[in-house]
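Support request from a user on the community tier.

User writes: "When I paste my structure tokens into the form, the page sometimes reloads and wipes my input. The last time it worked, I copied everything first. Here is what I submitted, just in case something in the input itself triggers the reload:"
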């Protein structure tokens, strides 16, 4: 089975502020228990030793729960752990990352709201393409806005899985899935919670959206 055929469902993305003070592993495990299929480790700090330690622990959690770990913007760390990678438009060459990580690695690309960027990413070997932001996003408030029509166009044009990101909630996710999103990427609507139990409950609710074809 090709890896891309498994790329469907809740895509949890970590946030170093939301998951500070010891919450990272417990909240991530709760999201995985709830059904997250992909987990992106996103940490823009320069503390390489801590990032390696955390990513290694997250990889163990993902393996335990049958999910896949994706590293944000650090091809060397992804290569060291043998996991996937997500690249933004300013995060380096996707084709170089593909050469480093090999043919089997999951590599995603941020395409903002542009089909042309998606076409370029696919040509360079992207496993999935990510469009956003769809709604007001606290993580990237200035990002270009994407539309449901863009999702429809992308679904008609590309066979690769499509991730939707940016301010998505339980209420807005169904319309994006209906328009062609294979993956719903969530940060705040998942992890801005008072307890790990609440994170798991939210993850289960998002995962349930994918239970019916």
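"...and here is what came back when it finally went through:"
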């Amino acid at each position: 089975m090709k890896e891309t055929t498994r790329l469907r469902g809740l895509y949890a993305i970590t946030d170093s502020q939301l998951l500070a003070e010891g919450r990272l592993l417990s909240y991530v495990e709760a999201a995985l228990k709830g059904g997250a299929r992909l987990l992106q480790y996103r940490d823009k700090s320069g503390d390489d030793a801590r990032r390696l330690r955390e990513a290694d622990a997250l990889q163990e959690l993902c393996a335990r729960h049958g999910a896949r770990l994706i590293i944000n913007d650090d091809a060397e760390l992804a290569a060291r752990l043998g996991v996937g990678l997500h690249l933004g438009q300013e995060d380096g060459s996707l084709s170089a990352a593909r050469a480093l990580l090999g043919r089997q690695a999951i590599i995603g690309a941020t395409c903002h709201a542009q089909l042309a960027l998606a076409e370029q990413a696919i040509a360079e070997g992207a496993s999935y393409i990510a469009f956003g932001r769809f709604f007001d996003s606290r993580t990237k408030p200035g990002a270009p806005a994407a539309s449901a029509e863009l999702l429809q166009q992308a679904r008609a044009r590309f066979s690769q899985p499509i991730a939707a990101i940016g301010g998505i909630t339980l209420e807005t996710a169904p319309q994006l899935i209906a328009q062609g999103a294979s993956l719903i990427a969530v940060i705040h609507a998942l992890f801005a919670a008072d307890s790990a139990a609440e994170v798991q409950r939210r993850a289960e609710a998002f995962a349930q959206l994918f239970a019916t074809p």
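Agent notes: The reload is a front-end session timeout and is unrelated to the input. DSSP finds nine helices and eight strands in the chain. The mean pLDDT is 93. Escalated to web team.
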